[in-house]
Amino acid sequence: MNKVIKIEKSTKQGLLEFLEHLLVNDKISGVLTLRKINENGICDYGFITDPKELIETAEPFAPVMPVNASQILSSLTPTTKPIAAIIKPCELRGFVERVKRAQGSLDNVLTISYTCGGVIPLNTFQSDANEKLVTDYFEVIKGTDTPDSVRPTCKACEIFIPMTADITIPIFGNNEVDSDCSLIMNSEEAVKMSKDFKCEIIESDLDSKIMAEILGKRTAEKEILFKTVSTTKEGLDDLVDTFGKCIGCHGCSRVCPICYCVLCDFESSNFDYNTDLMENELSQKHALRLPPDTIFFQLGRLNHMSFSCVGCGQCEDVCPAGIPVSTIFKKTGEDVAKIFDFVPGRDVEEVIPVMIIKEQEFPEVGE
Amino acid sequence: MTWQPKILAILCNWCSYAGADLAGVSRLQYPPNIRVVRIPCSGRVDPLFIMKALQTGYDGVLVSGCHPGDCHYLSGNYFARRKFAMMKPMMEFIGIEPDRLQFSWVSAGEGERFADVVTKVTNDIKKIGPIKKLVKGV
Question: What's A7's DSSP letter?
């Protein structure tokens, strides 16, 4: 059981008033949140320091991911002035993974996250006629069903409850979103912040029965999704079918919360092709795909980061060739993470699998 | 002439390479199918090296390092072991037979073991047959 702030207003309004209170009293210097940028409801991330601006423009629960917020948080931290960030569970996990890789810090960051119903693909959401879509979305997630309009990976996401958030807000599966606001405080930090805030504080937690119901539905959905996107069935031919479309834009790695390298190996001179190298490869094959190494890039990325994949679906969203990148990475990542009993973003103290050394393990490797 | 597999052997400088040397000096017989690359430590092996080798036409890859606990750099082969354990689901995903990729620990004094390992790996890969290239219809 955790301490819960109860406010008899809609969840959005309650949260914004709480944050306004923190801003006015100088407990935080700014809030990272999604906000409206025009009348059509198009959203982007903004770091807001003015309480009035916050109340007017913030759309903290908008079902869209213009960028993975963990990348933004990396540029906002480490900070000496406390800030608050309202982000989705997968973005939070992505940020935790980034912190493990020294790409930011959780100090002085009040992380606020919520049970997430998934996000609508960027192209669909950021169009002029998204109003009905969003209203429908919020209507559906009051129950335990995931809306059809969200990304395929979101439909199959099993970690819709934030893992390490300071404050958790029930949105998905909460049918009282419009009339009642409860902010579940998971950490001392959050309790300290809320000290002077005039509100009712009760002992409560997320409704475990509803959460279990959602989880059951999501797991069933995941099994279906993983079956449709299978590259193991046909072996190499299937792999070519899947990744052959890749145009080598590297967009998937640009938007990935885990791919933080300033100079990606695949963009370095290691992968520059000169005529000698091409002739060498051509001596083994009869034809060479140009630009080369597009499939190899995908395999390399799978090797380098899939065990930390948080399954946010951003890569699939931006892929101009329509490759189901996210599903593939999520599936392979889960297989790999299983070996190490690792869940990306579960705990900031948990070291990433390739950085751990143990004397006795994997006796089957190398006999 | 029957088909002979081409196998890339990535050997660590301090143990396996010396083991291979010893096998040669002791005039032990082993199949001539391996092409040796010497690396400072098995921990240096990026899974990409293995992928690239398989992609460019090698029928198999053997990675060999010091026995766990004997690493010249103390912990390099522990890192390597984790990376190699990770390779298995990856190979399954790609659709390459997992047996094409083999790992072994051979120390500098184990010339005989090195010859045995190479013989075993070569036989295993002969059984699987030539690799399908990562290009359609070729």
Answer: E
